[in-house]
Amino acid sequence: MGVRVQAEPFDAGSELSGFAQGRTDVGAVVSFTGVVRDTVGDLREMQIEHYPGMTQSAIETIVAEAVRRWDLADALVIHRYGPLKPGAPIMMVATAAAHRAAAFAAADFLMDYLKSRAPFWKKEVTDTGADWVAAKDADEDALNRW
User: Cβ–Cβ contacts within 10 Å for residue 139, how many?
Assistant: First the structure.
């Protein structure tokens, strides 16, 4: 199980390769990589803030819950912070399990948590100013299904 909260960029392909390398005990590896999306049309950057100890601990707790609930062989969460340009990888989730249903469900659960509850604060910086990104009801609804 691994959780990394970092400012540095990561290569999703390399991370997935390392995560899955040598795994003969699993039948499924699922991954998702989120990228910074320009939803406003003139996004210069997304600024992501967090409290280091709190963020790391909160994500480790939810990853442990996913491992327990879906009997995962392994899980990885990488989440970046700091200023990120549109198109930059912002986060990655990978799960490994004996069967695909568990790997997919656990990855989906982790994504729903990261989207709605992980202690990150996002600000969109555009040509005309900066605005904090508000929580979305749809993200809360997605998390509530678990």
Answer: 16
Residues spanned by the domain of 67 = 2-144
Q: How far, in Å, CA of 94 to CA of 16, rounded?
A: 7
Query: For the packed helices 52-70 and 100-116, what is the interaxial angle rounded to 10 degrees?
Result: 150
Full-model pTM: 0.93
Q: Which of 59, 64, 87, 62 minimizes the C-alpha distance to 74?
A: 64
- CATH number at 20 reads 3.90.1170.40
Q: Which two tokens stand for residue 43?
A: 């996004």
Measured CA distances, 60 to 11, 22, 116, 119 (Å): 21, 24, 16, 12
Q: How many distinct structural domains can be found in the chain?
A: 1
54 pLDDT above the threshold of 80: yes
pLDDT of 142 strictly over 80: no
Q: For residues 141 and 143, what is the distance between their CA atoms, to the nearest angstrom?
A: 5
